[in-house]
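User: For my dataset I need records formatted as: sequence, then structure tokens, nothing else. Please produce one.
Assistant:
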Amino acid sequence: MFCALRSPVEATVTPWIGVLLAGGLARRMGGGDKCLRPLAGRPLLEHVIERAAPQVSALILNAGGDPGRFAAYGLPVVADVVGGFAGPLAGVLTALDWAADNAPHTPWVASFATDAPFLPVDLVARLAAAVGDEGADMACAASGGRTHPVFGLWPVRLRGALRKALLDEDMRKIDAWTARYRVAVVEFPCDPVDPFFNVNRAEDLAAAESIAGR
């Protein structure tokens, strides 16, 4: 049974870029922009921004199509630098390229899925601490014994290697690429709710409404 969620609190801001990954096709929800589906009277994306924005110095939104549909959020909207709906790795590469071009002194990019409205408000701080403690190349989140690689901390210095993997090797699975490096995995508690609960289907959205209501 889900308990009431605590309200988001301001997290420690890092001088890093955050990318909101919204480039999926949402096939299990009939297509369209899943992140714009309403939850508790607001779009999913708004819930995610509320939790992610205090953790980074700037946010960008990775999405294709007409950027005007996201104008209300005032964020840079950046389409994949790799064509063909190459998945979240393409979104990560897009963000690394954007950071290199627009924030050249930023060494890291944090990624957030836009269908997980309860993500931790200390996500970036804990991932960064784990990278430092373990001397890792990158970090990703985990909960309930499962890893969530779309919630990660990525070094801008590896963007060339990621581009090569995507273009020359047709790599699409995050785990296949990160297996080449030392990854710090940070476990987050599932009490009162799994913070990485994500909305993939209509029934998940109904469950998220129940969680938000409690």
